Amino acid sequence: MKAEILCVGTEILLGDIVNTNAAYLARELASIGIPVYHQSVVGDNPGRLAAALQTAFGRGDLVVMTGGLGPTYDDLTKETLAEYFGSPLREDAKSLESIQAFFQKIGREMTENNRKQALMPEGAVIFHNYNGTAPGLALEKEGKTAILLPGPPREMELMYETGVRPYLERRSGQVLVSHTVHIFGMGESAVEQLLRPTISKMENPTVAPYAKTGEVQLRVTARAADKAAAEAMTQPAVEQIRQALGNVVYGVDIGSLQQAAVQALAARGLTAATAESCTGGLVSKRLTEVPGASAVFGFGACTYANEMKEKVLGVSPETLERCGAVSPETAAQMARGAARIAGADIGISTTGIAGPGGGTPEKPVGLVYVGVWSRRHEEVLRLDLGRGQMREREQIRYLAASHALHALWRTALLYPERTDG
After folding, report:
1. What angle do CA 215, 327, 402 make, to 5 degrees?
2. Which of the residues 11, 30, 278, 347 could staple to 339 if both were Cys, CB 3.0 to 4.6 A apart?
3. Whole-number mean pLDDT of the chain?
4. If you write DSSP's letter for every residue of 329-370 in order, what string do you get?
5. Record: fold of 257-412
């Protein structure tokens, strides 16, 4: 089965929204052994949509579509597909009942145009929408299958998980299992060079590198007849990579640095506090993106001004005068102050020059210090994150926050895990 992802929406073509649906669907389809060879975007125009369908089915047998299932006049995906397959639209009583129940639940009157969403091509398999009104569907004809999903990601993703994935798994005949090895502190080229003798010989499982901002991910993927067999094939490869790379691997399938940090803290019953200058609260923001972070993180101070570093964190005026705000001494006192105020086990701080101005030959743009304080470990990291590029301020801030989160994770690992469950 060869798949194409076709996303419908003029707003995507105009750049008004980011097409995250295609990335999600590509990952999900790969995980069940369905390769995606093409991705396309087309506007809300029935003629161009019909032409896109013709092209897609000319090079594959499965087209997964998102968008254009709403109640308004320009939502024409379903109508165009029904005409393309020669399947007349019929009102589906169960879909209409679900739409009516949705409006009753939110206390709003259902307008007449919402009935349009209950019209389904004859012979379609219908997928329930748990987060909205537009049902999805699958339609097959002469060896070709189209799947229609709503455009809003929170509707599309849940519908895929609850309806579409089980539908496709029954048809794919094979399963792909992937595990992602997360790496921080080694560049993509260095990772590839170190592992090349190992991964170049692998055919099943395969290893594919992906570079992110400041990080590298290795996706290990195995193909087999069932999940258990594919899983068994991936594990030796993952372990081989971990052994080869050592402590630059901060987790497998962990999701993010902040997820790794929160999990490490929680497993050891530790708490953390942050004190930020150049990152402006970004470390705190990323920590609190993780569900359950409140159990390990309760205090973060954004002390951008020197006066606040003194008043809030207790940084010595003499240190600020003698060494400056961007200095290892200030970073150390900021981390210590954050931990003291919060009564936390670990304090993390950031102070630096994110640019574009403010740099000097002694302290250039991109110079950042990350301070770490705990009863078991204290250190200050000097980071030179500037690359002399235009508009790199946000990259410097993001990388500085990543290093702070990585330092927090490493420090947490110095403590033993709890044994009380």
Report:
1. 15
2. 347
3. 94
4. HHHHHHHHHHHHHHT-SEEEEEEE--SSS---SSS-TTEEEE
5. Maf protein (3.90.950)
